[in-house]
Specification:
- The complex is a heterodimer of chains A (253) and B (215).
- Chain A has 253 residues and is of the alpha/beta class.
- Chain A is built from 9 helices and 11 strands.
- In chain A, the strands form 2 sheets. A 6-stranded mixed sheet of chain A has the order 7-8-9-3-10-11, with helices on both faces. A 5-stranded antiparallel sheet of chain A has the order 2-1-4-5-6.
- In chain A, helix 3 runs parallel beside helix 5.
- The radius of gyration of chain A is 18 Å and the shape is globular.
- Chain B has one domain: Orthogonal Bundle (MetI-like fold), CATH 1.10.3720.
- Chain B is 81% helix and 0% strand.
- Chain B contains 8 helices and no strands.
- In chain B, helix 1 packs across helix 4 and helix 5 packs antiparallel against helix 6.
- Classes of the chains: A alpha/beta (253), B mainly alpha (215).
- The interface between A and B is medium-sized, with 27 and 19 residues.
Chain lengths: 253, 215
């Protein structure tokens, strides 16, 4: 079953075409990594898919909810507020710089969205939060405030916060780019664990070894287009496009 | 007139001074939020209109505004001036201070990182929920030092009510000073304001401290 279908997305800032006719679909349980140089459009693609940035044209479908479709002129039309709210409940997003709520404790960061948005009871929300913190290895940090945690711990809290909303698909926007190498590992380990549990994920990352190890499919983007995609062994082991080879070579050296 | 009599008489006016102070805060703090939102409105007409209003309120003396609100209705419409001058005084103070608070709120709201809005949006918070649960608590902490500044100024500004002969502490002090040809009432007034502000400082310090639990 397809969780996400992106069809022919176009996005430009002025005369700068950031996304050129990108199509992509993600199956339930699939882990897709998107790699590519800075400015290739990876993050913009993720922002369009998560409704943070408006696309110029294209279609966006989650499960059987249509969030965006084209009108006759090929211009993107967004669904109404109620429909978009439903769609937002299907996905979660983990940001590069965490974006935890600094005025809430770790526990409240996980509990408040569940109660405010999903209408869960305090007990149910706390139970869920405790389970997730335990899974993230952060049980003792429940009463801490984000500023008291390391970057790696903050990012794990952010992942837990996203999971607490029971998303069907989880996006990661360079989840380890703001972390020093020592802390990167603990976050990647958590994402890997989610992959093993068959969580549907789309991960924009610069961690090539990680992408290779964790994904079912790797997408290489450059200049606003998908240059190449396939199983990690194909893309990393035997890249076809010249641009992919060049990019990977730079990374390996 | 003995010093004690002076102090007692002036202290009687402190009730009115406090009335101006607390009523002004009561009305101007929320009104400032409304003005801040109008100022940040997406409609160019509303935001520019509000900007002009704020410019006038901040660009002309509060003393002038006090006189305008108190006596304006009489000169413009022939409406007789109510005997209770507290109402026009508080109106003038509240509107003037709301303009300053509005700009403080706006600076605080605009200083919030966009990531906080985006995180809330992704989690599914509505715009209103985002503002009250995520943005406002953080803005409150950021702007508290500026708010304290204004509150301290307000304590001293209450003395301007003497221009419309509202019987607050400073007005009474000035009357005594005139009738007794003495400078002492001004010293007493200075001491009163200083003590008042020491209390304000202490309270606001506590408030700021209560928000210190995170960075």
């Amino acid at each position: 079953m397809k969780v996400l279908q992106i069809k022919n997305i176009e996005k430009s800032y002025g005369s700068n075409n950031v996304l050129k006719d990108i199509s992509l679909s993600v199956d339930m349980g699939e882990v897709v990594s998107i790699i590519g140089p800075s400015g290739s459009g990876k993050s913009t693609l993720l922002r369009c898919a998560t409704l943070l940035t408006e696309m110029d044209s294209g279609e966006l479908i989650y499960l059987d909810e249509c969030a965006v479709k084209n009108d006759e002129k090929g211009k993107a039309v967004y669904a109404d507020k109620a429909e978009l709210k439903k769609v937002r409940g299907i996905f979660g997003l983990v940001f590069q710089n965490f974006n935890l709520f600094p005025h809430y404790s770790v526990m409240k960061n996980l509990v408040d969205p569940q109660m405010t948005v999903l209408g869960r009871s305090k007990e149910a929300a706390e139970k869920k939060a405790v389970e997730l913190l335990d899974k993230m290895g952060l049980s003792e940090k429940a009463d801490f405030y984000p500023c008291m945690l390391s970057g790696g711990q903050q990012q794990r809290v952010a992942i837990a916060r996203a999971l607490a909303m029971d998303p069907t698909i989880l996006f990661f926007d360079e989840p380890t780019s703001a972390l020093d190498p020592e802390l990167t590992g603990e976050v990647l380990k958590v994402i890997k664990q989610l992959a093993e549990e068959k969580m549907t994920m789309v991960i924009v990352t610069h961690e090539m070894a990680f992408a290779r190890a964790v994904s079912n499919r790797v997408i290489f983007m450059d200049g606003g287009v998908i240059v190449e995609q396939g199983e990690p062994e194909e893309v990393f082991g035997n890249p076809q496009a010249e641009r992919t080879k060049q990019f990977l070579r730079n990374y390996q050296s | 007139m003995s010093l004690l009599t002076m102090i007692t008489k002036m202290a009687e006016g402190l009730g009115n001074t406090c009335a101006i102070f607390f009523l002004t805060l009561l009305f101007s703090l929320p009104l400032g939020m409304v003005i801040a939102f109008l100022r940040m409105s997406k409609s160019k007409i509303i935001s520019n209109f509000t900007r002009v209003i704020i410019a006038i309120l901040r660009g002309t003396p509060l003393m002038l505004q006090l006189i305008a609100v108190t006596y304006g209705p009489y000169y413009l419409f022939g409406i007789s001036i109510s005997r209770n001058k507290l109402i026009p005084v508080v109106i003038a103070f509240a509107i003037n201070y709301a303009a300053y608070f509005a700009e403080i709120y706006r600076s605080g709201i605009e200083s919030m990182p966009v990531g906080q809005y985006e995180a809330a949006e992704i989690l599914g918070y509505s715009k209103v929920q985002t503002f009250f649960r995520v943005i406002l608590p953080q803005v409150a902490k950021r702007i508290m030092p500026s708010i304290t500044n204004e509150v301290v100024t307000l304590v001293k500004d209450t003395s301007m009510a003497f221009t419309v002969s509202y019987q607050e502490m400073f007005t009474i002090g000035k009357q005594i000073a005139n009738s007794q040809t003495s400078f002492v009432p001004f010293v007493v007034a200075g001491a009163f304001y200083f003590i008042f502000n020491a209390i304000v400082d202490y309270v606001m310090g506590k408030v700021e401290k209560s928000m210190d639990y995170y960075e």
